[in-house]
Protein: Pyrroloquinoline-quinone synthase
Organism: Neoroseomonas marina
Amino acid sequence: MSILSPDALEDALRAIGAERYHIHHPFHHLLHGGQLTKGQVQAWALNRYYYQASIPAKDASLVARLPTPELRREWRRRLVDHDGDGVHPGGIERWLALTDGLGLDRDYVVSLQGLLPATRFAVDAYVRFVREKSLLEAIASSLTEMFSPNIISQRVSGMLRNYDFVTEQTLAYFTPRLTQAPQDVAFALAYVKDHADTAERQEQVLAALRFKCDLLWAQLDALHFAYVAPGLPPPGAFRP
Amino acid sequence: MSILSPDALEDALRAIGAERYHIHHPFHHLLHGGQLTKGQVQAWALNRYYYQASIPAKDASLVARLPTPELRREWRRRLVDHDGDGVHPGGIERWLALTDGLGLDRDYVVSLQGLLPATRFAVDAYVRFVREKSLLEAIASSLTEMFSPNIISQRVSGMLRNYDFVTEQTLAYFTPRLTQAPQDVAFALAYVKDHADTAERQEQVLAALRFKCDLLWAQLDALHFAYVAPGLPPPGAFRP
């Protein structure tokens, strides 16, 4: 591969999203299309909790490797967004409001007892990726947020329309994400376009985004297999 | 060793400080006693900059391993204290005001070109310790802050009294530390007393604090050797 201009690199990143982002997964279509039972939506929220709860671990290990106060402050904002500030709830707390709203026991959710093992493997792979790969690859792996406003608006509008057990309050997790994600993306995308200055580094960046799309996709595969078709939750996993 | 009560453990921690904290190092006595040249004080500030600049790396890798939003928020405060919030300067910026005030070129300080290799080894050992040891040991290694208000007040009052090249503004780094450190200690000490619940864990906690005292001490040893007696800075190191 020869070196791309920064804008061509951005196009290549967006092309990965167009092909691989989990907005195209059948489970997502069932979810926002109103074709899941309450139990299946519970399974989704319960498993996705582990992803939400692990985000600050990956972000803090990224902060630990950023070289300047300016860069660390930029990325520290994500810690505040997810963990809150002690007054305003963060993303994890808001996700628990979602699992509450779906009628799941909070202690059970937090205990991770009912988690699909495949969810754990995928999420842990993400935390390890960010800890162990280059800073550039770690930052690039966050760029699925380029695509998240679309999936969030589909989810929120579809779920509100189609499920009588879902309210705006239940889905309050998503509202701040519509402004937080673009702010995060603006920084991360500029960093990646600026620092991926060889063909090799550009290929690493594209691979990092593919990896991240794959692990989001794999989480929906596992949900689909366990709870939709054929519908075989593994021993010990949540049963609606 | 048999298990100690939490208060006896605190006494044992304080006894380590009484014996090993670098307030007892001859270089500290020379520094606050006004017996160093401006060049020797510059060497101290230049080397200590690397310690300051590395603190957020160790704190963020600790945040990355804390399991709950509450614990992470508590430790996140240290990131804010050291990196600032983009409006109020953090500890690193305030330390650079100190090296500015001592007449050192800021680019040279930040470049780490003049750093003593022994400073780098000691500081890097601290960052690695926090990243690799148990969470309990990582938190315990912060407890030298139990002893820091004393050394800070000795430094500030002694340096102001004894050096005409030092002003209150130059030493502004230290003022917020007098309130930040006790707040940090209150949490860390309570955590350690609560979680060091076996004789083995208590021994780990005591060893972690000894390790931390040793690495602060080693930094002053290196300064003393290079710049006081015999006064042999290694090749490439800062020369006043």
About this structure: Chain B has a mean pLDDT of 95.
